[in-house]
Specification:
The chain is built from 21 helices and four strands. By secondary structure, the chain is mainly α.
Length: about 525
């Protein structure tokens, strides 16, 4: 009797300990993800997306010509049409959340997207298992370290994950397969995805690949082909979803634009870090966080080799294909991270996950967390002090000054500030250049304007005359702390007046609004 009582007591203590550990891991995951979801709005492209959503709502139309750029505007092309109109649905959603509660509405949008993806994961795997949670948190941290939920590309990552869950639930649940339960969600997903981001092309590729890979299994019995009836359901559902993905304004434009999207020699891509390969990105930035991506690739394929799915050409092909794309282009790495997260959660849930494997997983999670999250606390503190729009990243006070003093005219500003100035000053004031890079000529002119030659008439003077630039919003210092040469050149030019300056930003106008300050350190 005493032996049974002791065993029962030990079992109770063990169960209590496991519950405590489970709650602690859940709390850890919530806090860690919450840190990323609550950080300030650092993404420079978010602001022109938000402004475009406002413009679409106010005009009840899509902008086929740029409503924010300094004329003359670039002629319509597949590329400009795609950039102007392919994100319209998400832009409207972002503006709707902003209308509810300002920038805090965007934070709410982040939490809703994260919560929705959690619900998808709950449908996919057993999130009560600590190892499953560890995989999910690791993948989430790697995703959110570089990519912002409020950007349309993040919706592509989420949509990609939903697509994989729908497809692989169909492939695994053989007894419950039906045409409509597969066709309807796939088609609805592809319609929504194709009206929010051009990444739906990857979704199309996955649908085509799954049909081909599952069809190839019929040629060899060891590949475990599905029943022919089920394959017909997969084929019909995939073809219908492919057709549904063309219900968007840019079905044909994207196909024409596709050859230059990932062309590293294309002018606007040459300095875009998102288009760099993993190694090129590291050489350019010396950001050691990219090694966590390499480690995640190694961990995933080690699990694949040990898994019962190692002969599943559908899973193996998707993992290999997305890993290759991610290594070639940083912007595509999240597609691998999503597919790896889904594969690894199912692996640690259903297969014998050895103690050494858990040790590697938890160690990688700990190191990744410490390395990646260390910069987030100062950012959140900054948000509580100065607001969700980081004043160290964008010319918030300069834009406030322009608005309060009713300064009008074509505006020249730093490319990374262009989207923010579109949000604050457009469309009444036109912006010379911004992160959309709609015009290759304008991109080249912008780069030339940053070159200040000694003892020569600066290129910017003729450029400003040609485009009737009346206002310049510029940083006082470069990122490395050295004085911004263009700002110094404009400051020394008699045609321009410095009307505002703080410790970071300066506003110049051609018309005299105020006395010329004695130095650029003047506080307005």
């Amino acid at each position: 009797m005493n032996s049974n009582a002791d065993s029962y007591e030990r079992a109770e203590k063990s169960a209590s300990f496991k519950r405590i550990v489970s709650w602690l891991t859940a709390l850890f995951a919530l806090v860690l993800v919450g840190i990323y979801l609550s950080r300030p709005l650092y993404d420079p492209d978010f602001y022109w997306h938000l402004k475009t959503g406002q413009w679409i709502w106010q005009n009840m139309a899509l902008p086929h010509l740029d409503p924010f750029g300094v004329p003359p505007l670039p002629p319509p092309s597949p590329r400009t049409e795609f950039i102007l109109t392919s994100y319209w649905l998400l832009q409207l959603i972002l503006y709707a959340f902003y209308s509810l509660s300002g920038m805090w509405g965007i934070i709410l949008f982040r939490w809703i997207i994260a919560g929705f993806f959690l619900l998808v994961c709950i449908r996919w795997t057993n999130v009560r298992l600590n190892s499953v949670r560890a995989v999910m948190v690791l993948g989430t941290v790697l995703l959110l370290e570089y990519y912002f939920i409020e950007r349309p590309q993040f919706i592509s990552f989420v949509s990609f994950g939903i697509l994989l869950v729908i497809l692989f639930r169909f492939l695994e649940q053989r007894a419950t397969r039906s045409l409509w339960s597969t066709l309807v969600p796939l088609s609805l997903l592809m319609i929504l995805w194709s009206n929010m981001h051009g990444g739906f092309l990857i979704g199309q590729s996955i649908l085509i690949y799954c049909v081909i890979a599952e069809g190839m299994k019929f040629f060899h019995g060891s590949l475990a082909p599905m029943p022919l009836r089920d394959y017909r359901i997969l084929f019909i559902s995939s073809v219908t979803a492919l057709g549904a993905s063309f219900v968007n304004p840019n079905a044909l434009n994207l196909i024409k634009y596709l050859p230059i999207i990932f062309d590293s020699s294309y002018y606007v891509n040459t300095n875009n870090l998102e288009e760099f390969s993993l190694l090129a990105y590291f050489r350019e930035t010396t950001d050691y966080a990219v090694f966590f991506y390499g480690a995640s690739i190694a961990l995933t394929f080690a699990a694949l080799v040990l898994s019962e799915h190692r002969k599943n050409i559908t899973w193996a092909g998707i993992l290999a294909g997305t890993a290759f794309m991610g290594c070639q282009h940083m912007r595509l790495m999240p597609f691998f991270l999503v597919s790896a997260m889904l594969f690894l959660t199912k692996f640690v849930e259903t297969e014998n996950f050895a103690v050494k494997g858990r040790l590697i997983l938890y160690s990688m999670l700990a190191v990744t967390t410490v390395y990646c999250v260390r910069d987030e606390f100062p950012r959140i503190f900054e948000a509580t002090r100065s607001g969700l729009v980081p004043v160290q990243q964008f010319p918030v006070k300069a834009a406030d000054f322009i608005a309060s003093n009713n300064i009008n005219g074509n505006i020249y500003t730093n490319m990374l500030w262009g989207g923010y100035m579109i949000w604050r000053a457009g469309p009444e004031n036109k912006i010379f250049y911004d992160g959309r890079s709609l015009s290759i000529q304008r991109a080249q002119e912008y780069d030339q304007s940053r070159i200040i030659a000694l003892n020569q008439r600066s290129y910017w003077k003729g450029l400003f005359d040609e485009y009737n630039i009346r206002v310049a919003v510029l940083p006082i210092y470069e990122v490395d702390g050295t004085p911004d040469l263009l700002t110094q050149s404009i400051y020394s030019d008699k045609e321009w007046t410095l009307v505002f300056a703080d410790e970071r930003d300066a506003v110049f106008v051609r018309e005299v609004y105020a006395e010329q300050p004695s130095s650029l350190s003047h506080k307005n």
